């Protein structure tokens, strides 16, 4: 009988017991792949921390399944980065997940530039629903969230009960700072999105991403003009 920790059998006690008190990011990843095997995927945004996590995952599981939520609206630099990463880690199983509705269909049904009138609906259709489908047969997923990124993310743990998708969400990099991330990238000569060097600490779709001051709010350049700060993947 498979006794892995799942959304359904979650208890605080089981969660606390899963890792030792001194566990670090690599211990978390090793535990996650041991616990879930093929029933876990990494949803990578291809941001700076996403590349760090990709490299760490490659050390632990060379054939790991990784997805990118391809809204069809990302920067060309992001797509170029994905091509470089695929070349660097040919053994990793990286897939681009697309929404059911293409942009022309979305425009027809919901009007031109939905991200300007209803970004929550746009994110829901282009990110949340595709991730839900990708997770449907899985027990857990991995995310590169860091506590430092925003007040809303400051409470994340290594292992989380994800009420949104009814899965276990593993976040190995919660204690990493932006400086840690960039140091790791440079030290290991890893490719990363050149927009990070142009004032974009957080990179999403072109229409919803502006530069932000790194030392103020990492996500202040996302959905400028709206109170929205999250695409909905990490909100219960
Ligand atoms: S980030 Fe903007 S363009 Fe991308 S899915 Fe969300 S609202 Fe739509």
Automatic annotation (TrEMBL):
The entry's keywords: Cytoplasm, Iron, Iron-sulfur, Metal-binding, Oxidoreductase
Where does this one sit in the cell?
Answer: Cytoplasm
- One Gene Ontology cellular component: cytoplasm
Q: Which CDD domains match?
A: PAPS_reductase (cd23945)
The protein's GO terms of the molecular function aspect are: 4 iron, 4 sulfur cluster binding; adenylyl-sulfate reductase (thioredoxin) activity; metal ion binding; phosphoadenylyl-sulfate reductase (thioredoxin) activity
- Entry's EC annotation: 1.8.4.10
- UniProt-listed GO biological process terms: cysteine biosynthetic process; hydrogen sulfide biosynthetic process; sulfate assimilation, phosphoadenylyl sulfate reduction by phosphoadenylyl-sulfate reductase (thioredoxin)
Domain Phosphoadenosine phosphosulphate reductase stretches: 40-211
Record-listed [4Fe-4S] cluster binding positions: 122-123, 205, 208
- Main enzyme class: oxidoreductase
Q: In which pathway does it act?
A: Sulfur metabolism; hydrogen sulfide biosynthesis; sulfite from sulfate
Residues annotated as the enzyme's active site:
231 (nucleophile)
Cofactor requirement:
[4Fe-4S] cluster
Q: Which reaction does it catalyse?
A: [thioredoxin]-disulfide + sulfite + AMP + 2 H(+) = adenosine 5'-phosphosulfate + [thioredoxin]-dithiol
Q: How is the cofactor bound?
A: Binds 1 [4Fe-4S] cluster per subunit.
Q: Note the superkingdom of the native organism.
A: Bacteria
Q: What does this protein do?
A: Catalyzes the formation of sulfite from adenosine 5'-phosphosulfate (APS) using thioredoxin as an electron donor.
Q: Which family does it belong to?
A: Belongs to the PAPS reductase family. CysH subfamily.
Protein name (record): Adenosine 5'-phosphosulfate reductase
What broad taxonomic lineage does this protein's source fall under? Answer: Bacteria, Bacillati, Bacillota, Bacilli, Bacillales
